[in-house]
Amino acid sequence: MVHLYRTFEGHDVVALRGVDLTILPGERIAFLGPSGSGKSTLLTLLGGIQKPSAGRIFLGEEEISRMGERYLSRVRARRVSTMLQGATRNLLPYATARQNIGFSRLGMEPSLRREAMADRDLLSRVGLEAQADQIVSTMSGGQRQRLALACAVATGPQLLLADEPTSQLSHEDRDHVLELIHGLGDELGTTVVVVTHQPEVAETFPRTVTMKGGRVGAEGRDGSEYVVIGAEGVLHLPSHYVAEWPQGTLVRIEPEGFERLVLSRPGGTEGAGDR
Ligand SMILES: Nc1ncnc2c1ncn2[C@@H]1O[C@H](COP(=O)(O)OP(=O)(O)OP(=O)(O)O)[C@@H](O)[C@H]1O
């Protein structure tokens, strides 16, 4: 993603204000951040569901932000699967579990469809073998979410995007869905990006990206938190410093040795000279 912006016509809102991010094949990432920080918007841009107002998105060598609708629908049918927030938005409620899987595979090339995991094996992998012929609207929330995941991976996508896949589930269902996301990601070598507001979900991902005000504010790698210097040197302070060092505070930045930069708030204010 290169310098992505997203606005909405007729609305005075900038959902994304310059996102630069590289996701490597096979990576597993959780997007975090306060409500309205742009997480879902970013996911729909990555999934080729919406287009950026400015900026570029590459899937491998291909620029999906420039593709026409015809190519984009092919990308969505074969290479990138998006699970929207709320399992039912991803499923046909009046159809059975097996029919939903069949429907999600309609856009696949016939040769790939023949090689793909059989419907029955896929349903069994997500613990729904007994529900194969059950109508979605009669399933529990956890069963629907597992079916939505099965449909999302049924096409063997390179990239799986999931918006809040574990919200509104019991702890048991949450853990089951999470274990399946990681397990299927491993088995299929799929790159996985989820949006979540649940810290216990995020901490199962080796990389976290925290969105703030439409930008990447911080990143976590293997349990350590980092702030990220963005385009034009923009730096978000960790939120617990923001009350103490509010917008407009004058700071001085000085290097200290080779690896440290010191921010100081010299003179005039409470705590003057504090470092
Ligand atoms: N279709 C739209 N029309 C107008 N504004 C929108 C639209 N979609 C999103 N927005 C606005 O863009 C901003 C980012 O929204 P987005 O849904 O991406 O945030 P989020 O971080 O996913 O929030 P949440 O955690 O509440 O789902 C918000 O201010 C939202 O109101």
From TrEMBL:
Give the keywords, sorted: ATP-binding, Nucleotide-binding
- In the UniProt record, does the keyword Signal occur? no
Question: PROSITE patterns from the entry?
Answer: ABC_TRANSPORTER_1, ABC_TRANSPORTER_2
Ranges for the ABC transporter domain?
A: 1-238
What are the boundaries of the signal sequence?
A: none
Q: Which PANTHER family match?
A: IMPORT ATP-BINDING PROTEIN
Identification of the protein by name = ABC transporter domain-containing protein
Q: Which organism is it from?
A: Nocardioides bigeumensis
Its lineage opens with:
Bacteria, Bacillati, Actinomycetota, Actinomycetes, Propionibacteriales
